[in-house]
Amino acid sequence: MDSNLAADLADLPDLLTAARDYAAGVLDGLDERPAAASRPDLAPVPLPAAGVGAAKALELFRERWAPGFSGSAGPRYLGFVTGGATPAALVGDWLTGTFDQNAVTRLDSSAVDLERETVGWLRSMFGLSDAHTGTFVTGATMSNTVGLAIGREWLGERRGVSVARQGVGALGEVAVLSGSPHSSIYKALAMLGVGRDQLRTVPLLPEREAVDVEALEAALAEAAGPVIVVANAGTVNTVDFDDLRAIAALRERYPFWLHVDAAFGGFAALSPAHAHLVDGLAAADSVCVDLHKWLNVPYDAAVQFTRRQDLQVSVFQNSAAYLTVPAGDPDLFHLTPENSRRLRALTAWFTLAAYGADGHREIVERNIAAARRFGEGLATVPGARLLSPVRLNVVCFTVDRDLPALLDAVARSGEAFLTPTVHRGVPALRAAFSNWRTGAADADRVIAVLRELVS
Protein backbone atom coordinates (compact mmCIF):
# COMPACT_ATOMS: atom_id res chain seq x y z
CA MET A 1 0.00 0.00 0.00
CA ASP A 2 1.23 3.51 -0.76
CA SER A 3 2.86 4.95 2.35
CA ASN A 4 0.66 8.07 2.39
CA LEU A 5 -2.45 5.95 1.94
CA ALA A 6 -1.41 3.61 4.74
CA ALA A 7 -0.67 6.52 7.06
CA ASP A 8 -4.02 8.14 6.28
CA LEU A 9 -5.83 4.89 7.00
CA ALA A 10 -4.15 4.71 10.36
CA ASP A 11 -4.96 8.35 11.10
CA LEU A 12 -8.49 8.29 9.63
CA PRO A 13 -10.34 9.28 12.83
CA ASP A 14 -8.09 12.32 13.28
CA LEU A 15 -8.40 13.26 9.61
CA LEU A 16 -12.19 13.16 9.77
CA THR A 17 -12.11 15.23 12.96
CA ALA A 18 -9.90 17.81 11.26
CA ALA A 19 -12.25 17.95 8.27
CA ARG A 20 -15.25 18.24 10.60
CA ASP A 21 -13.66 21.09 12.56
CA TYR A 22 -12.72 22.92 9.39
CA ALA A 23 -16.18 22.45 7.88
CA ALA A 24 -17.81 23.67 11.09
CA GLY A 25 -15.62 26.76 11.00
CA VAL A 26 -16.59 27.48 7.40
CA LEU A 27 -20.29 27.20 8.23
CA ASP A 28 -19.92 29.31 11.36
CA GLY A 29 -18.27 32.00 9.24
CA LEU A 30 -20.86 32.14 6.48
CA ASP A 31 -22.24 35.42 7.78
CA GLU A 32 -18.87 37.06 7.15
CA ARG A 33 -17.84 35.06 4.08
CA PRO A 34 -18.37 36.99 0.82
CA ALA A 35 -21.52 35.81 -0.92
CA ALA A 36 -19.60 36.01 -4.20
CA ALA A 37 -15.85 35.60 -3.80
CA SER A 38 -13.30 37.21 -6.09
CA ARG A 39 -11.50 34.46 -7.97
CA PRO A 40 -7.73 34.54 -7.52
CA ASP A 41 -5.65 34.13 -10.66
CA LEU A 42 -4.27 30.66 -10.02
CA ALA A 43 -2.41 28.80 -12.73
CA PRO A 44 -2.80 25.01 -12.70
CA VAL A 45 0.07 23.11 -11.14
CA PRO A 46 1.36 19.77 -12.45
CA LEU A 47 0.04 16.52 -10.99
CA PRO A 48 2.41 15.54 -8.18
CA ALA A 49 4.25 12.27 -8.65
CA ALA A 50 4.25 11.67 -4.91
CA GLY A 51 1.29 12.84 -2.86
CA VAL A 52 1.43 14.74 0.39
CA GLY A 53 -1.21 12.87 2.38
CA ALA A 54 -4.71 13.95 3.35
CA ALA A 55 -3.74 16.33 6.15
CA LYS A 56 -1.38 18.29 3.93
CA ALA A 57 -3.93 18.18 1.09
CA LEU A 58 -6.50 19.77 3.42
CA GLU A 59 -3.97 22.46 4.29
CA LEU A 60 -3.23 23.11 0.62
CA PHE A 61 -6.94 23.37 -0.15
CA ARG A 62 -7.48 25.85 2.68
CA GLU A 63 -4.63 28.04 1.48
CA ARG A 64 -4.96 27.78 -2.30
CA TRP A 65 -8.60 27.18 -3.20
CA ALA A 66 -10.96 27.88 -0.30
CA PRO A 67 -10.44 31.69 -0.36
CA GLY A 68 -11.93 31.79 -3.85
CA PHE A 69 -15.05 29.81 -2.95
CA SER A 70 -18.29 31.76 -2.66
CA GLY A 71 -20.65 31.81 0.28
CA SER A 72 -23.29 30.02 -1.79
CA ALA A 73 -24.34 28.00 1.26
CA GLY A 74 -25.22 31.22 3.09
CA PRO A 75 -28.34 33.34 3.50
CA ARG A 76 -27.59 36.19 1.08
CA TYR A 77 -26.54 34.18 -1.94
CA LEU A 78 -29.63 35.06 -3.96
CA GLY A 79 -28.61 33.80 -7.39
CA PHE A 80 -29.76 30.80 -9.42
CA VAL A 81 -32.44 29.73 -6.88
CA THR A 82 -29.72 28.03 -4.86
CA GLY A 83 -30.56 26.47 -1.53
CA GLY A 84 -27.94 25.42 0.98
CA ALA A 85 -27.58 22.25 3.00
CA THR A 86 -29.63 21.86 6.15
CA PRO A 87 -27.66 20.33 9.04
CA ALA A 88 -29.37 16.99 8.55
CA ALA A 89 -28.78 17.06 4.78
CA LEU A 90 -25.08 17.69 5.40
CA VAL A 91 -24.96 14.69 7.74
CA GLY A 92 -26.59 12.65 5.00
CA ASP A 93 -24.08 13.89 2.45
CA TRP A 94 -21.13 12.88 4.62
CA LEU A 95 -22.64 9.45 5.16
CA THR A 96 -23.32 9.11 1.45
CA GLY A 97 -19.59 9.26 0.89
CA THR A 98 -18.89 7.04 3.88
CA PHE A 99 -21.09 4.16 2.73
CA ASP A 100 -20.37 4.80 -0.98
CA GLN A 101 -23.36 2.83 -2.22
CA ASN A 102 -23.89 2.37 -5.95
CA ALA A 103 -27.60 3.01 -5.57
CA VAL A 104 -28.99 1.28 -8.64
CA THR A 105 -29.74 -2.32 -7.66
CA ARG A 106 -31.16 -4.36 -4.80
CA LEU A 107 -28.69 -7.19 -5.40
CA ASP A 108 -26.32 -6.11 -2.64
CA SER A 109 -27.86 -3.26 -0.64
CA SER A 110 -31.01 -1.70 0.78
CA ALA A 111 -30.00 1.67 -0.72
CA VAL A 112 -32.61 1.36 -3.47
CA ASP A 113 -35.31 0.75 -0.87
CA LEU A 114 -34.24 3.91 0.98
CA GLU A 115 -34.56 5.83 -2.28
CA ARG A 116 -38.02 4.38 -2.86
CA GLU A 117 -39.11 5.47 0.60
CA THR A 118 -37.72 8.96 0.01
CA VAL A 119 -39.48 9.21 -3.35
CA GLY A 120 -42.72 8.24 -1.62
CA TRP A 121 -42.25 11.03 0.91
CA LEU A 122 -41.63 13.54 -1.87
CA ARG A 123 -44.60 12.27 -3.88
CA SER A 124 -46.80 12.91 -0.84
CA MET A 125 -45.24 16.32 -0.28
CA PHE A 126 -46.07 17.45 -3.81
CA GLY A 127 -49.55 15.96 -3.83
CA LEU A 128 -48.88 13.48 -6.62
CA SER A 129 -50.78 10.24 -7.05
CA ASP A 130 -49.68 6.72 -6.23
CA ALA A 131 -49.49 6.19 -9.99
CA HIS A 132 -46.45 8.47 -10.14
CA THR A 133 -43.17 6.62 -9.76
CA GLY A 134 -39.99 8.60 -9.22
CA THR A 135 -36.23 8.38 -9.48
CA PHE A 136 -33.34 10.58 -8.37
CA VAL A 137 -31.23 12.35 -10.98
CA THR A 138 -28.59 15.08 -10.92
CA GLY A 139 -30.68 18.21 -11.34
CA ALA A 140 -33.55 19.91 -13.18
CA THR A 141 -31.87 19.59 -16.57
CA MET A 142 -31.62 15.82 -16.28
CA SER A 143 -35.08 15.58 -14.73
CA ASN A 144 -36.55 17.49 -17.66
CA THR A 145 -34.55 15.37 -20.08
CA VAL A 146 -35.83 12.11 -18.59
CA GLY A 147 -39.43 13.35 -18.57
CA LEU A 148 -39.24 14.48 -22.19
CA ALA A 149 -37.55 11.22 -23.21
CA ILE A 150 -40.53 9.33 -21.81
CA GLY A 151 -42.83 11.77 -23.59
CA ARG A 152 -40.95 11.15 -26.84
CA GLU A 153 -41.51 7.40 -26.40
CA TRP A 154 -45.20 8.10 -25.77
CA LEU A 155 -45.38 9.95 -29.08
CA GLY A 156 -43.90 6.87 -30.73
CA GLU A 157 -46.45 4.64 -29.02
CA ARG A 158 -49.24 6.79 -30.42
CA ARG A 159 -47.74 6.49 -33.90
CA GLY A 160 -46.99 2.78 -33.74
CA VAL A 161 -43.20 3.02 -33.46
CA SER A 162 -40.60 2.69 -30.73
CA VAL A 163 -38.11 5.54 -30.72
CA ALA A 164 -35.94 3.61 -28.27
CA ARG A 165 -35.52 0.80 -30.81
CA GLN A 166 -35.91 2.53 -34.15
CA GLY A 167 -34.49 5.96 -33.47
CA VAL A 168 -36.00 9.42 -33.49
CA GLY A 169 -36.16 9.38 -37.29
CA ALA A 170 -39.02 6.88 -37.09
CA LEU A 171 -41.08 9.41 -35.18
CA GLY A 172 -41.54 11.94 -37.94
CA GLU A 173 -42.48 15.54 -37.22
CA VAL A 174 -42.68 16.44 -33.53
CA ALA A 175 -44.36 19.45 -31.96
CA VAL A 176 -43.51 20.67 -28.45
CA LEU A 177 -45.62 23.52 -27.04
CA SER A 178 -44.85 25.75 -24.07
CA GLY A 179 -45.43 29.27 -22.85
CA SER A 180 -42.27 30.21 -20.92
CA PRO A 181 -39.96 27.21 -21.20
CA HIS A 182 -36.79 27.07 -19.13
CA SER A 183 -33.56 26.99 -21.12
CA SER A 184 -33.00 23.37 -20.03
CA ILE A 185 -36.04 22.33 -22.08
CA TYR A 186 -34.29 23.45 -25.26
CA LYS A 187 -31.14 21.66 -24.15
CA ALA A 188 -33.08 18.47 -23.45
CA LEU A 189 -34.76 18.56 -26.86
CA ALA A 190 -31.35 18.96 -28.49
CA MET A 191 -29.92 15.98 -26.59
CA LEU A 192 -32.96 13.84 -27.38
CA GLY A 193 -32.67 14.44 -31.11
CA VAL A 194 -36.04 16.18 -31.23
CA GLY A 195 -34.37 19.52 -31.90
CA ARG A 196 -34.54 22.94 -30.32
CA ASP A 197 -36.50 24.32 -33.27
CA GLN A 198 -39.39 21.95 -32.62
CA LEU A 199 -40.42 23.93 -29.54
CA ARG A 200 -43.17 26.39 -30.37
CA THR A 201 -43.76 29.09 -27.80
CA VAL A 202 -47.42 29.78 -27.16
CA PRO A 203 -48.70 33.32 -26.37
CA LEU A 204 -48.83 34.30 -22.71
CA LEU A 205 -51.48 36.02 -20.65
CA PRO A 206 -51.13 39.82 -20.60
CA GLU A 207 -48.36 41.01 -18.27
CA ARG A 208 -47.69 37.39 -17.25
CA GLU A 209 -45.29 34.52 -17.89
CA ALA A 210 -48.19 32.06 -17.70
CA VAL A 211 -49.46 30.51 -20.90
CA ASP A 212 -52.77 31.63 -22.40
CA VAL A 213 -54.76 28.39 -22.23
CA GLU A 214 -57.05 29.46 -25.09
CA ALA A 215 -53.99 30.09 -27.26
CA LEU A 216 -52.63 26.69 -26.24
CA GLU A 217 -55.88 25.05 -27.26
CA ALA A 218 -55.68 26.76 -30.63
CA ALA A 219 -52.12 25.51 -31.09
CA LEU A 220 -53.21 21.99 -30.17
CA ALA A 221 -56.05 22.16 -32.68
CA GLU A 222 -53.58 23.13 -35.40
CA ALA A 223 -51.09 20.38 -34.54
CA ALA A 224 -50.94 17.30 -36.72
CA GLY A 225 -51.25 14.44 -34.26
CA PRO A 226 -50.07 14.01 -30.65
CA VAL A 227 -47.71 16.58 -29.16
CA ILE A 228 -45.77 17.28 -25.98
CA VAL A 229 -46.87 20.19 -23.80
CA VAL A 230 -44.40 21.61 -21.30
CA ALA A 231 -46.19 23.48 -18.55
CA ASN A 232 -44.47 25.60 -15.95
CA ALA A 233 -44.95 25.60 -12.20
CA GLY A 234 -42.72 28.52 -11.32
CA THR A 235 -40.98 30.45 -14.11
CA VAL A 236 -37.43 31.68 -13.69
CA ASN A 237 -37.98 35.44 -13.71
CA THR A 238 -41.27 35.91 -11.90
CA VAL A 239 -42.26 32.47 -10.51
CA ASP A 240 -45.44 32.49 -12.57
CA PHE A 241 -47.57 29.37 -12.81
CA ASP A 242 -49.51 27.93 -15.71
CA ASP A 243 -53.08 26.87 -14.97
CA LEU A 244 -52.23 23.18 -14.72
CA ARG A 245 -55.77 21.98 -14.19
CA ALA A 246 -57.08 23.88 -17.20
CA ILE A 247 -54.23 22.60 -19.35
CA ALA A 248 -54.82 19.01 -18.26
CA ALA A 249 -58.52 19.36 -19.09
CA LEU A 250 -57.59 19.98 -22.74
CA ARG A 251 -56.57 16.33 -23.02
CA GLU A 252 -60.28 15.46 -23.17
CA ARG A 253 -60.18 16.85 -26.74
CA TYR A 254 -56.53 16.72 -27.78
CA PRO A 255 -53.91 14.03 -27.25
CA PHE A 256 -50.71 15.29 -25.65
CA TRP A 257 -48.07 14.34 -23.13
CA LEU A 258 -48.11 16.80 -20.23
CA HIS A 259 -44.70 17.48 -18.72
CA VAL A 260 -44.58 19.96 -15.84
CA ASP A 261 -41.37 21.76 -14.99
CA ALA A 262 -41.82 22.39 -11.26
CA ALA A 263 -38.10 22.67 -10.51
CA PHE A 264 -38.60 24.93 -7.50
CA GLY A 265 -42.19 26.12 -7.83
CA GLY A 266 -43.43 22.68 -6.85
CA PHE A 267 -42.54 23.50 -3.25
CA ALA A 268 -45.48 25.90 -3.18
CA ALA A 269 -47.44 22.75 -2.34
CA LEU A 270 -46.03 22.96 1.20
CA SER A 271 -47.65 26.31 1.95
CA PRO A 272 -51.43 26.36 2.48
CA ALA A 273 -51.50 29.95 1.22
CA HIS A 274 -49.77 29.00 -2.04
CA ALA A 275 -50.68 25.37 -2.68
CA HIS A 276 -53.36 26.45 -5.14
CA LEU A 277 -50.57 27.47 -7.52
CA VAL A 278 -49.77 23.80 -8.16
CA ASP A 279 -53.36 22.62 -8.26
CA GLY A 280 -53.51 20.05 -11.03
CA LEU A 281 -49.88 18.92 -10.74
CA ALA A 282 -51.08 15.36 -10.11
CA ALA A 283 -52.56 15.30 -13.62
CA ALA A 284 -49.10 15.53 -15.20
CA ASP A 285 -47.58 12.62 -17.09
CA SER A 286 -44.10 13.63 -15.97
CA VAL A 287 -42.86 16.14 -13.41
CA CYS A 288 -39.49 17.76 -12.74
CA VAL A 289 -38.53 18.87 -9.22
CA ASP A 290 -35.06 20.13 -8.29
CA LEU A 291 -34.11 19.25 -4.73
CA HIS A 292 -30.86 21.18 -4.36
CA LYS A 293 -32.99 24.27 -4.64
CA TRP A 294 -35.75 24.61 -2.06
CA LEU A 295 -35.31 21.28 -0.28
CA ASN A 296 -31.85 22.55 0.69
CA VAL A 297 -29.84 19.42 0.06
CA PRO A 298 -26.31 19.64 -1.38
CA TYR A 299 -25.64 19.56 -5.10
CA ASP A 300 -26.48 17.48 -7.00
CA ALA A 301 -29.99 16.16 -6.43
CA ALA A 302 -33.31 16.24 -8.22
CA VAL A 303 -36.20 13.88 -8.75
CA GLN A 304 -38.32 13.05 -11.76
CA PHE A 305 -41.80 11.56 -11.61
CA THR A 306 -43.85 9.84 -14.27
CA ARG A 307 -47.07 7.89 -14.70
CA ARG A 308 -45.54 5.69 -17.42
CA GLN A 309 -42.67 3.79 -15.89
CA ASP A 310 -43.16 1.14 -18.57
CA LEU A 311 -42.17 3.66 -21.24
CA GLN A 312 -39.34 4.90 -19.05
CA VAL A 313 -37.96 1.37 -18.95
CA SER A 314 -38.31 1.11 -22.73
CA VAL A 315 -36.01 4.12 -23.08
CA PHE A 316 -33.42 3.52 -20.36
CA GLN A 317 -33.28 -0.24 -19.80
CA ASN A 318 -29.82 -1.74 -19.67
CA SER A 319 -29.45 -5.39 -20.61
CA ALA A 320 -26.44 -7.42 -19.57
CA ALA A 321 -25.91 -10.91 -18.20
CA TYR A 322 -24.84 -9.59 -14.80
CA LEU A 323 -27.83 -7.24 -14.40
CA THR A 324 -31.42 -7.82 -13.35
CA VAL A 325 -34.26 -8.01 -15.87
CA PRO A 326 -36.52 -4.90 -15.79
CA ALA A 327 -39.71 -6.56 -14.54
CA GLY A 328 -42.17 -5.47 -11.85
CA ASP A 329 -40.38 -2.85 -9.77
CA PRO A 330 -37.24 -2.39 -11.88
CA ASP A 331 -33.79 -1.60 -10.57
CA LEU A 332 -32.85 2.03 -11.00
CA PHE A 333 -30.29 1.64 -13.79
CA HIS A 334 -33.30 0.79 -15.99
CA LEU A 335 -34.83 4.23 -15.35
CA THR A 336 -32.24 6.94 -15.98
CA PRO A 337 -29.20 7.53 -18.22
CA GLU A 338 -26.81 6.48 -15.44
CA ASN A 339 -25.83 2.87 -14.91
CA SER A 340 -24.12 3.75 -11.64
CA ARG A 341 -24.48 6.67 -9.25
CA ARG A 342 -24.14 7.75 -5.65
CA LEU A 343 -27.01 7.46 -3.18
CA ARG A 344 -28.34 10.99 -3.76
CA ALA A 345 -31.52 10.13 -1.90
CA LEU A 346 -29.76 9.90 1.45
CA THR A 347 -29.41 13.67 1.89
CA ALA A 348 -33.10 14.14 1.11
CA TRP A 349 -34.04 11.27 3.42
CA PHE A 350 -32.09 12.84 6.28
CA THR A 351 -33.55 16.33 5.94
CA LEU A 352 -37.10 15.01 5.53
CA ALA A 353 -36.73 12.63 8.46
CA ALA A 354 -35.18 15.35 10.61
CA TYR A 355 -37.57 18.24 9.91
CA GLY A 356 -40.60 16.67 8.25
CA ALA A 357 -43.13 18.47 6.12
CA ASP A 358 -43.69 21.11 8.81
CA GLY A 359 -40.02 22.04 9.06
CA HIS A 360 -39.68 22.45 5.33
CA ARG A 361 -42.96 24.35 5.17
CA GLU A 362 -41.46 26.85 7.63
CA ILE A 363 -38.41 27.33 5.38
CA VAL A 364 -40.59 27.89 2.33
CA GLU A 365 -42.91 30.36 4.06
CA ARG A 366 -40.02 32.25 5.69
CA ASN A 367 -38.31 32.59 2.31
CA ILE A 368 -41.53 33.84 0.72
CA ALA A 369 -41.92 36.40 3.49
CA ALA A 370 -38.31 37.53 3.01
CA ALA A 371 -38.85 37.91 -0.74
CA ARG A 372 -41.93 40.05 -0.16
CA ARG A 373 -40.07 42.15 2.39
CA PHE A 374 -37.27 42.64 -0.14
CA GLY A 375 -39.81 43.63 -2.81
CA GLU A 376 -41.36 46.18 -0.48
CA GLY A 377 -37.93 47.47 0.52
CA LEU A 378 -37.08 48.31 -3.09
CA ALA A 379 -39.32 51.37 -2.65
CA THR A 380 -36.49 52.85 -0.56
CA VAL A 381 -33.83 52.27 -3.25
CA PRO A 382 -33.53 55.26 -5.62
CA GLY A 383 -34.41 54.31 -9.18
CA ALA A 384 -35.53 50.77 -8.33
CA ARG A 385 -38.84 49.27 -9.36
CA LEU A 386 -40.47 45.88 -9.45
CA LEU A 387 -41.07 44.39 -12.89
CA SER A 388 -43.56 41.84 -11.60
CA PRO A 389 -45.50 41.12 -8.44
CA VAL A 390 -43.61 39.00 -5.91
CA ARG A 391 -45.58 35.79 -6.30
CA LEU A 392 -43.35 33.43 -4.37
CA ASN A 393 -39.61 33.54 -3.70
CA VAL A 394 -38.01 35.39 -6.62
CA VAL A 395 -37.98 39.18 -6.92
CA CYS A 396 -37.58 40.52 -10.46
CA PHE A 397 -36.67 44.21 -10.52
CA THR A 398 -34.63 46.83 -12.26
CA VAL A 399 -32.72 49.91 -11.16
CA ASP A 400 -32.16 53.08 -13.14
CA ARG A 401 -28.40 52.53 -13.13
CA ASP A 402 -25.69 50.68 -15.04
CA LEU A 403 -26.90 47.19 -14.07
CA PRO A 404 -23.69 45.23 -14.84
CA ALA A 405 -21.70 47.74 -12.78
CA LEU A 406 -24.26 47.55 -9.98
CA LEU A 407 -24.17 43.75 -9.96
CA ASP A 408 -20.39 43.83 -9.82
CA ALA A 409 -20.47 46.33 -6.95
CA VAL A 410 -22.93 44.17 -5.01
CA ALA A 411 -20.74 41.10 -5.52
CA ARG A 412 -17.57 42.99 -4.54
CA SER A 413 -19.25 44.19 -1.38
CA GLY A 414 -19.47 40.55 -0.29
CA GLU A 415 -22.94 41.21 1.11
CA ALA A 416 -24.98 39.47 -1.57
CA PHE A 417 -24.98 37.79 -4.94
CA LEU A 418 -27.69 38.58 -7.50
CA THR A 419 -28.04 37.49 -11.10
CA PRO A 420 -28.98 39.44 -14.23
CA THR A 421 -31.88 38.67 -16.52
CA VAL A 422 -34.14 40.28 -19.11
CA HIS A 423 -37.88 40.48 -18.47
CA ARG A 424 -40.16 41.49 -21.35
CA GLY A 425 -37.25 43.23 -23.00
CA VAL A 426 -36.15 45.12 -19.88
CA PRO A 427 -32.68 44.42 -18.42
CA ALA A 428 -33.32 43.32 -14.87
CA LEU A 429 -31.99 41.70 -11.69
CA ARG A 430 -33.20 38.62 -9.85
CA ALA A 431 -33.07 37.94 -6.14
CA ALA A 432 -33.97 34.32 -5.37
CA PHE A 433 -34.77 33.42 -1.76
CA SER A 434 -34.41 29.69 -1.12
CA ASN A 435 -31.75 29.16 1.57
CA TRP A 436 -32.82 27.58 4.86
CA ARG A 437 -31.00 30.32 6.81
CA THR A 438 -32.47 33.30 4.98
CA GLY A 439 -34.93 35.58 6.73
CA ALA A 440 -36.20 39.14 6.99
CA ALA A 441 -32.91 40.51 8.38
CA ASP A 442 -31.07 39.25 5.30
CA ALA A 443 -33.58 40.93 2.99
CA ASP A 444 -33.08 44.20 4.88
CA ARG A 445 -29.30 43.84 4.70
CA VAL A 446 -29.31 43.44 0.92
CA ILE A 447 -31.70 46.36 0.50
CA ALA A 448 -29.33 48.49 2.59
CA VAL A 449 -26.44 47.56 0.30
CA LEU A 450 -28.43 48.44 -2.83
CA ARG A 451 -29.52 51.73 -1.30
CA GLU A 452 -25.94 52.62 -0.40
CA LEU A 453 -24.57 51.70 -3.83
CA VAL A 454 -27.10 53.67 -5.88
CA SER A 455 -27.34 56.75 -3.62
Automatic annotation (TrEMBL):
The keyword Lyase applies. GO terms for biological process: carboxylic acid metabolic process. Keywords: Decarboxylase, Lyase, Pyridoxal phosphate. The modification N6-(pyridoxal phosphate)lysine is found at K293. InterPro entries: Aromatic_deC, PyrdxlP-dep_de-COase, PyrdxlP-dep_Trfase, PyrdxlP-dep_Trfase_major, PyrdxlP-dep_Trfase_small, Pyridoxal-P_BS. GO terms for molecular function: aromatic-L-amino-acid decarboxylase activity; pyridoxal phosphate binding. It comes from the Bacteria. Coiled coil: none annotated. The keyword Lyase applies. Its cofactor is pyridoxal 5'-phosphate. Belongs to the group II decarboxylase family. This is Glutamate or tyrosine decarboxylase. It comes from Actinoplanes regularis.
